[in-house]
Amino acid sequence: MQELNRYEYAVLRYVPRVEREEFINVGLAMMCKRRRWIKVAILLPEEKLCVMCPDADKEALGRQLQAFVDIAEGRRGAGPVAQYPVEERFRWISAVKSSVIQTSRPHPGLCGDLDETFARLFTELVE
User: Fold this and answer.
1) Interatomic CA distance for residues 66 and 41, integer angstroms
2) Domain that includes residue 90, residue range
3) Which has the closest alpha carbon to 8: 114, 99, 123?
4) Is 11 helix (H, G, I), strand (E, B) or coil?
5) What angle do CA 42, 51, 16 make, to 5 degrees?
6) 96 φ, ψ to 5°?
7) How many domains are there within the chain?
8) Pick from 92, 93, 109: nearest CA to 28
9) Average pLDDT over residues 59-65
């Protein structure tokens, strides 16, 4: 019998006009504390961006979202947060923000294969 892993995930959102509270799902963050596993992936949907916010600076947005990936991966150039344990990195990534990049509330789950579950959630929630 396959051992189950408890995980948490949050959807990364681009909110071009915070006061309107409209958003586009642009990424996923997922963490399993026991396995010391964390992953963030991003996808900028060009068509949705053009419709919802035609004047968006896609390059700047891409750099800002890449910072979440760099922190999750623990890259040294990503600042001190990138050196925290995975659960603290996830908490920083999924913390409530009032900026144009926000996340959903974290959601829990159980799975056997973390990578497979991440891929499924990314497809369902972001792609």
Assistant:
1) 9
2) 5-125
3) 114
4) strand
5) 60
6) -60, 130
7) 1
8) 93
9) 94
Q: What is the pTM of this model?
A: 0.94
Q: Tell me, what's the pLDDT at 104?
A: 97
C-alpha–C-alpha distance, residues 49 and 88, integer Å: 31
Q: Letter for the amino acid at 78?
A: A
Contact 86, 37 (CB under 8 A): yes
Asked if pLDDT for residue 2 goes beyond 80, the answer is: no
CA atoms of 50 and 56, how far apart (whole Å): 8
Chain segment 26-50, per-residue pLDDT in tens: 999 999 999 999 999 999 998 998 8
Distance CA 25, CA 35 (A): 26
* Two structure tokens written together for 53: 């916010």
pLDDT at 1 over 80: no
